[in-house]
Specification:
Helix content is 53%, strand content 8%. By secondary structure, it is mainly alpha-helical.
Length: 206
């Protein structure tokens, strides 16, 4: 399994949104990141259905969904639901969480770190769950189609920037070609993780 996530800092494509400080601070709450991840993974949900997934009351999830909606991070699904039961979805596209301007402000810098930590926690938990029971909990064809891969290389900053840019473009093009609507027969939620970063050698800092 791998992911070019629609919720990560991907600077390619026309549907990328750079979060401003207010939106970033609004997202810097563990439950709100969870709500965004649920909508990204499973498609439109009600406050009640999301609450069951994350172990929270519908009142709590409804409140946090409204806060996210104030900043355009989620939105109500048009022509679906009722006054008593709203349906929510995540707008398509990627989110950029960090820019040089945002990094200059200590409060937005800390908000970025909080959001990224929560995203990473969610990815780690999803991967750990798959590794612990994936082959037993999904049909064989799904287990055979999954892959967990790590590749190592020595790169310059320019090479790493080019690699992440090119891979993000390729992954997004492929995902757009295969992407199905939630609930399409024969499909299930899939995550694709793509990680590329320089390793910090402790011996070099000692």
């Amino acid at each position: 399994m791998e992911e070019a996530s629609d919720t990560q800092d991907v600077r390619t494509g026309d549907d990328n949104r750079i979060l401003d400080g207010a939106a970033l601070k609004a997202l810097a709450h563990p439950l709100r990141v969870q709500l965004l991840e649920v909508l990204s993974s499973y498609g439109p949900q009600t406050a009640c259905s999301i609450g069951k997934r994350v172990g929270e009351s519908s009142g709590s999830t409804s409140y946090h969904l409204r806060q996210l909606a104030r900043h355009g991070l989620v939105r109500e699904v048009p022509d679906r639901g009722s006054a008593r039961e709203r349906w929510w979805e995540r707008p398509s596209g990627s989110l950029t969480l960090s820019t040089p301007e945002l990094e200059q402000d200590p409060t937005t810098r800390e908000a970025t770190r909080q959001v990224n930590r929560q995203f990473e926690r969610g990815r780690s938990e999803a991967l750990a769950t798959f590794m612990a029971s994936g082959c037993e909990s999904v049909p064989p064809e799904w287990a055979d189609a999954a892959v967990i891969a790590t590749m190592n290389a020595y790169l310059t900053p320019a090479q790493l920037a080019a690699l992440t840019r090119d891979m993000s473009t390729i992954l997004r093009e492929k995902l757009d070609a295969y992407r199905s609507e939630p609930g399409t027969p024969g499909t299930r939620p899939v995550q694709v993780h793509f990680n590329a970063f320089p390793l910090i050698d402790p011996q070099e800092s000692s």
